[in-house]
Amino acid sequence: MVLIIIGMLASMALPRYGNSIVIHSADAAARRLAADLEWARTLARTRSAPQTVRILGTADHAYELVGINDPDHPDQAYTVSLTEVGHGAVIDSYDFDGDADLVFDMYGLPDSAGQVVLSVGDEQRTIQVEVGSGLVSVTE
Q: What CA–CA distance (Å, rounded) separates 94 from 117?
């Protein structure tokens, strides 16, 4: 009888646990991209030079901070593949005024507004960049 009760509880808990992992992965991937966009904005302001973030496409599910070396591997470019960093996220779409590049000027302002849509399973997150302020936000 005890085993039946444990089995029933486990059968109810496992789907919820699996769904929570998907939600966490989607949130983590969106926060990672948002943090890197903010970092690019900060680099542009502190260096008083433009900084480009390039989405490498929906096939690669990756992005790059152009001209920046990876902090962990200084001999490599700073490229993040969202499918490989443990999130399992894919880039569904992106649009920076018809471009794959988002360029922050020396004041940290983007050359265009834009958004990137990520998904993990059924969970989807949108990372938006405002043109007037350069603020980055994440929405479900």
A: 6
pLDDT band at 35 (very low <50, low <70, confident <90, very high): very high
Q: Residue 64 is part of which domain span?
A: 2-139
Neighbours of 125 (CB within 10 A): 23
CATH number of 100's domain? 3.55.40.10
List, as one string, the DSSP characters of 44-92.
HHHHTS-EEEEE--TTTTEEEEEEEE-SS-TTSEEEEETTTTTS--EEE
DSSP 130: -
Total domains in the chain come to 1
**Contact (CB, 8 A) for 63 and 53:** yes
User: What is the percent of the chain where pLDDT is above 90?
Assistant: 66
Predicted model pTM: 0.85
Q: What is the pLDDT of residue 140?
A: 87
